[in-house]
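Q: My labmate handed me this sequence with no annotations at all. I'd like to see what the chain might look like in three dimensions before we decide whether it's worth expressing. Could you predict it?
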Amino acid sequence: MTATSVSPRERSKTTPAASSAGSKVYRPYSNWFYLPTAVIYGVLFLVPTFASLYFSLTRWSLFESRFIGLDNFKLFFQEPALVKGFTNTLIYAVVTSGSKVVLGLLLAVLLTSQIVARGYLRSVVFFPVLVSTIGVGLTFTVLMNPDQGLINKSLALVGISGPGWLTDPKWALLSVAAVDVWKGVGLATLIYIAGIVSIPREYIEAARVDGAGSWQQFRRIVLPLSRPATVTVIILSLIGGLRSFDLIWAMTRGGPGFTSDVIASVIYKQYQAGFYGLSTAGNVVLFIVVTAIILPLSWFLNRKEVDL
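A: Here is what I predict for the chain of 308 residues:
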């Protein structure tokens, strides 16, 4: 037998294994391993979703339901507050998400530089994220009181007459949005910090050797390479802004009048009035609106990221 020949017995041992390895895809886990996650996902998401779709087509109470087709959706879109709620929702989402992107990036650049008490300042910036939203809303309701609030009293000391932050229709929605940004910018900052510290230091050092200043390093290196963090902050902030309810309800309850109502608060008011089918239809509408905005935007931003 030559050095390169293989006996039939050895060939019978190696050939099936080789063919098996070439035909089967290696899986680190059995398919049964995913079953618990699939069950939890189905129970907590799929079942409530399909139940909501069904009950949105009915007039229901805790004890009975009657199928009425699309009447709930027709009635919901005839609500006078709905158009205002849609407009306010879009304004609120754009203002809060845009502010979090800009402020989060600037704070992240500051908190990744060589400054004194950097770790402490990171904790201070992130702390509002951990505070209860209702607690934040009630606290700022007191601070923004037009007569006795600390904010207007502080402005009066320097000769400025503060507006009715939560009672003036021109200021109410933007005042709540400002509080939302204060509470949520810490999370955006944290995401940006993670993106910036993952940038290889060789890029920064090479730019310094080439004579690039701080602004050029930021514009040419930090800003482009932190794009994944920017996409994440935009998507999360937009989802939160479009679904926002608790902070607005705690501070203004949609007032004065309907000037700070958003889709979620309109839905809640319908639920309070006992129109359960109507409010369920509103939830379906909100789900469709969020999906219709977020999915195309996410696809577009991620596609641009790949193209770069």
